[in-house]
Amino acid sequence: MPTKRIFAAAALAGALLTSLPLFAEPLTATPATAPSSATVTPNLMGQLSLFSPAAMLAQSAAPAQLAAKAAAADKSAGAVDEDDADGDGMPDSGVSAVAALANDTSDLRKTLIGMAMQLRDIRYVRGGHDPSTGFDCSGFVRYVFAHAVGLELPTNSASQFVAGLNVNRGDMKPGDLVFFRTAGKRGQGRVSHVGIYIANGQFIHSPSRGKTVRVDSLDQSYWAQRFAGAKRPGALARS
C-alpha cells in the first residue's frame, strides 16, 4: 500500500512539472506597430524648410521716381522726425527674448541686424544720428545702413517710406524697414516712425524721448494699431 501511494504521488508530481512551463512563461508586451510613412505628420521644422515665401515684391518703382518722392517727403516732413519724440502711450519696455535669424538669411542682412543689435540701449535724442550723442528713429536706421552696407537713406521716416519698395507683411525679411503712424489718432496721419525688422514679428528701433534703442514686437497692441507697412531699400532687393 505504501508503495502504491508513492507511485501515485510521483505520477502527480510529474504531471505538475509537465504543465508548469505553461504558467511560468514570462509575459512580454506586444510590440507597437510603427506607423506607416504615409500617416506620419512632418514636424514643424520640416514644414518650415519646405516653405518658400514669394520672392516678388508687391511694387517696384524707378529709382528716379523714388528719389523724387523721398525729396518731397523730406521737404514736407522736415529734417527730423518730430512725432516719435513724445511717444504717447508707447510701451515703456521691449521684448525680453530676441528672435533668431533663419539659417538662410543672407550675409548682407545678417550684417545689418548685427550692426543694429550692437547699438541697443543707446538713448533717444531728437534729431540724433550718431551713437556718441543718441538717435531718433530715422537717425538710427540711417546710421545702421550707412555703416553696415554703405547705403545712404533719406533723412526721416516719411521720406524713407516713399523711397522703399513695398513688401507684404508675410514676405518681410531681416533688414527690411517697418513704418508706423504714431502721431494723432491710432493708425492715422502721416508716417512718423521707423524701425528695422529682425524676424518672427520683431523689430529694433529708437522709440521715443526717455527710452533707448530696443527690440519690440509687431504684435503688441500699440504697434499693431499703428503699423503703416514694410519697405525694402533698393540695396536689399536681391538679397
From TrEMBL:
The keyword Signal applies. Coiled coil: none annotated. Residues 1-24 form the signal peptide. Residues 106-234 form the NlpC/P60 domain. Keywords: Hydrolase, Protease, Signal, Thiol protease. Belongs to the peptidase C40 family. This is C40 family peptidase. It comes from Dyella kyungheensis.
